[in-house]
Amino acid sequence: MGLLILGITTPSIISAVSDGRAPRAAIIVLMLGGSLAVYALSQKPGGYTLDEIPEAFIRVIARIF
Question: Is 58 helix (H, G, I), strand (E, B) or coil?
Answer without folding.
Answer: helix
